[in-house]
Amino acid sequence: MERERRLEEKLPRYLEALRELVAVPTVSARNQSIPEGAKAVAAIARRFGLQADLHYFDGVPYVIASHRAGEGRPALLFYNHFDVQPEDPLELWETPPFDMAERDGKLYGRGVCDDKGHIIVRFAAYELLAEEQGEVPLNLAFLMEGEEEIGSPHIREFLRDKADLLRAKGCIWESGGVTSRGRPELYMGMKGVMSLELRARGPKMDVHSSLGPIVPNPLWRLVDFLREIKDADDRIRIPDFYADVLPPDERDLQALSEGLDEMEELRESLGLEAFLGGAEGLEARRRLFFEPWVNVNGIHGGYGGEGSKTVLPSEARAKLDIRLVPDQKPEVILEKLLYYRYKLGYSDIEIEVSGGIEGPAKTPLDDPFVRLVADSAEEIYREKPLLIPIAAGSGPMAHFRDILGVPIVGCGMGYPGSRIHSPNENIRIEDFKRAILHTAKVIEKFASKS
User: Fold this and answer.
1) Taking the CA of residue 167 as centre, how many other CA atoms within 13 Å lie in the half-sphere pointing to its CB?
2) Which of 167, 367, 411, 430 is deepest in the core (most CB within 10 A)?
3) pLDDT 10s digits, 135-156
4) What per-residue confidence (pLDDT) applies to 230?
5) What whole-number distance in Å separates Cα of residue 92 and Cα of residue 130?
6) Could you give the percent of the chain with pLDDT greater than 90?
7) Which candidate, 410, 360, 417, 419, places its Cα nearest to that of 387?
8) Is residue 234 reached through a cis peptide bond, with omega within 30 degrees of 0 on the bond before it?
9) Residue 442: which pLDDT band, with cuts at 50, 70 and 90?
10) Confidence band (pLDDT; 50, 70, 90) for 253?
């Protein structure tokens, strides 16, 4: 196939562009190199034949790259992010995280999958089509931000401000991938997320642990409250926590039933004898994608180094995230948690929202845009894609649905061994190439059917 041949010819150039982008350590959690990352993304977009402009909102840089075919032409939107997770723990990386390495048909580096590799995939797909057709006959907009990994705290207002530039009839979301067997996966929604920090206070300074019988220990206080959030049957005890949960419909359950083997492989890959509560098969998939949850991400306080230090800490902190499903609203769940804290007599424990708040979002499985992306995937991968109604992860998708009213599908090149957010993050080069071809096919079909 001619397109595949040209892709092979251009592959070294595409990989070099990815190497260039990975080299910019855009760690949003440390507010590191975000302006430099935005400039790098814009420069690469221009090299691929797109117009690219930097936009700022409250000092935060965004990149909008575009191709304009003219007024009245259909518009397709792509959303990505160029910020990455911290590289820690550094000692577990086999090669430097911001120096992309290639070995055994894979590319290693922080951001190669999440999400810089997907940026290059989409730029490359556009370039292939532009050179092949002379003029891509539809409007394209590529929105890229540098705050996704910290909850996209500014993007809702940015979308309101730039809605006229970004309105489209379909949106390809930031990332996606294939199963362990190479079957493409598409997802049409995401859970919401709200990150919280809890703080308990004791004496005004750390004291000797011998005072434990008479001095309140904030670590015990915090642990006692955390134990009130979940019961022994793994149900969240916050009053009415499940009140607004929208259960999966028949189409959703049918889609979930097609990926049962993936759950067993996931369990084995994690080294688990069983999932939480002994969930198996369809029930495990239902819980993963359609059940809300409260996670304890970490507990901190006192001494955690080597050996022993007999200390009673002055304060203790815990980081939580709450994953939400349609039709739960983050602000409502927060109010329920605050009331529960008061009702139980733990008002002394401080609760603060940390990072952005993202609601859940979902595009119906029978939306025509879903079918277009699925048909395109089947042509490239020679296999029907696995449809996931709502992903277990989170992102700012609800803002796009609320403000732009656009149907959204996530697809991409990750695979179960990509180690996203972990040391030795990687992608397989073959998946990178097929994702480019799939993206090009989506653009081509979208232009012909719109």
Assistant:
1) 8
2) 411
3) 899 999 999 999 999 989 999 9
4) 96
5) 41
6) 94
7) 410
8) no
9) very high
10) very high
The rounded distance, in Å, linking the Cα atoms of 423 and 88 is: 7
Q: Are 325 and 291 in contact (CB under 8 A)?
A: yes
Q: Which amino acid is at 367?
A: D
Class of domain 192-256+290-358: alpha beta
Phi/psi-derived region of residue 70, left when phi > 0, alpha when psi is between -120 and 50, beta in every other case: left
Q: Of 382, 163, 151, 341, which Cα lies nearest the Cα of 239?
A: 341
CB-based contact 355:153 (threshold 8 Å): yes
Q: What is the pLDDT of residue 449?
A: 81
Angle CA(141)–CA(144)–CA(150) in degrees, nearest 5? Answer: 150
Domain boundaries, the chain: 2-188+363-449, 192-256+290-358
Under DSSP, is residue 78 helix (H, G, I), strand (E, B) or coil? strand
Q: Do domains 2-188+363-449 and 192-256+290-358 have the same CATH topology?
A: no
Q: What is the pTM of this model?
A: 0.91
The pLDDT assigned to 450 comes to: 65
User: Which residue bears the tokens 């996670």?
Assistant: 295
Beta-strand relationship, 184-187 and 386-388: parallel
Give me the pLDDT at residue 86, please: 97
CA 291/CA 34 separation, integer angstroms:
34
CB 320, CB 198: distance < 8 Å = yes
Q: Residue 81 CB: number of other CB atoms within 10 A? A: 29
* Tokens coding 261: 């083997």
